[in-house]
């Protein structure tokens, strides 16, 4: 491991291995991870237990894990600078989570916006009817909170309710000072801070209260304007050839019907990409779009070469990384992670006076 | 370890180290544990993570753990026959619990009678008022389920909601075939069976679906007729001298006001004790009490010598067991437990296809 002078703190961040990474992941998360390596002691992990929270079908997990870590390595996450590991191989994550669940009330988790949003998404516009009483065949319709609570109870796994506690354990185990997050994750960091303070009040000052490292929101929408996701088929991949990128970019919906329509670049997914991949012409295009002095097609066609060029080095490097390389790096990373976590969990138990057998263990 | 022929299965049971054990624990649970050793491969554990669920103040945990295990050993739990260990020293309990939380919906836990009873106990007859809306100062009173849900959210820890999942992990890790329980714990065994079947359906037949081993309900009420508990000061302890037992038994409330009042032995805490400690005269006393041909005082005074005698051997043996003895037995037991659990968790991950690094681990 290289020694970094003037470290600004410890960073922890994880990614769920749910499928192939697209340019949204690369530009929104990974580029930040690569940069953070220079100034922080970084822990980057495969959040496989979190992946199982939303998808209990695990048949793709191994493949997704290996491919995802290949992407990390090829794009510049350096195992000599950062600790790269798999969550489920570091048992202390689960052990601390079980302890921390005892320190936080159910309501704090029910109030998480991600929980509420998920329940609302599940609920959709379905109508929910329940028997008036246990023995009755007559039914009544549920509304508002009552409807959502019914759906949460009957359709949401306990793991989905408690995963922010597992996240808190992820963070606190490494004495993390900074957690890079998007705005939607801020309530989870706040919960982690609350849990840390609660632990410290009850058992003594052990847990580092982390700060959120809010990264500039780089919006990368899919080519249909929705959230970019492989499952929608609207993604642009850094593994695409220039031809494939051209084809994808060409299909982006731009809203302008005629050349004379004035554009609104901040509403346009193409402009998302110009801001990231074409910084030199960025402001010029902004003007031209608003003035309707550039055709959407011409605007789009500035992109494919540039996007492709950004990932050229990545693609070349990725082709050289084998499954075995990844596994060796993860095995070594798991060991490095466990050095930190086993010590932290020992301290946790010592602070909780649960190290009954310390003498016996020697 | 002695070899037992004709084993009928594997038993697992735990006890929370919440304070000194009284004769209710000895006769209601421990005597059964001692007997089960002859025909089952038994795992008996200090359920310290469960203890933290209801009491996050851990200052007495170490002392309570050592004293409780001394009681086990002195009463006949034999480390050469059974595996005796501490839950928090076997990380696989937490690891499996976190996985299983992903397989069970929130509602299944909210419906546990222990959860509902605890929330009702917390709620008592308190009135709960909430603002009519977020911005309003006007309030409305909550009733029924809405009131209980409000109290659960704001006052019950997540750990209390999820502890039946930790119990399921406790049980499933050891391929337990039989779980000795009282009637109140039957829903938890049913939940464990449901989780086991769910795992088996999704990932393959790995988990042994356990059966409840319903022990004859030996009711031992405290001397005031309430549940026996040291915190009520109504307990009889196997560590009491005969004089102390006499004093306690004498104070038992018996409901009969005059000698001529006919007794109802099944309503009387003294008769609970006669059934356990005075089996020879049991039926005679039953008649005499119903006929009012025995005075309560005389009935009571048949007990102290008998109770004391039952625990004579226990008391003598207990005085010879040191903290160090207990710690050595627990360290050895933890190792034995982990041999079983680490293999079971490896299999669990293999069935879930989460053993990504098996080759790397060699």
Structure, explained:
The structure is a homodimer of 362-residue chains. The first copy, chain A, is mostly helical and 362 residues long. Chain A folds into three domains: 10-106 and 158-218 and 322-361, Rossmann fold; 118-155, no CATH class; 230-314, Orthogonal Bundle (Tyrosyl-Transfer RNA Synthetase). Chain A is 52% helix and 8% strand. In chain A, helix 4 (92-100) runs parallel beside helix 16 (323-351) and helix 6 (113-123) packs across helix 7 (144-155). The longest helix of chain A is centred in the last third of the chain and has 29 residues, at 323-351. The radius of gyration of chain A is 24 Å and the shape is globular. The two termini of chain A are 30 Å apart. Chains A and B meet through helix 2, helix 3, helix 4, helix 5 and helix 7 of A and helix 2, helix 3, helix 4, helix 5 and helix 7 of B.
CATH architecture of the largest domain in chain A: 3-Layer(aba) Sandwich
Radius of gyration of chain A over alpha carbons?
Answer: 24 Å
What's the helix-strand series of chain A?
EHEHHEHHHEEHHEHEHHHHHHHH
For the sheet with most strands of chain A, the description reads: 3 strands, parallel
Count of DSSP E strands of chain A?
7
CATH class of the largest domain in chain A: Alpha Beta
Overall body shape of chain A: globular
Distance between the termini of chain A: 30 Å
Q: What number of structural domains do the residues of chain A give?
A: 3
User: What percent of the residues of chain A sit in helical stretches (DSSP H or I)?
Assistant: 40-55%
Task: Find the structural class of chain A using helix and strand composition.
Answer: mainly alpha
**Largest sheet, spatial ordering of strands of chain A:** 1-2-3
Mean pLDDT of chain A: 93
Most extensive chain interface and residues per partner: A-B, 64 and 64 residues
The CATH fourth-level homologous superfamily of the largest domain in chain A: HUPs
> Which runs of chain A of at least 5 residues are low in confidence (pLDDT < 50)?
none
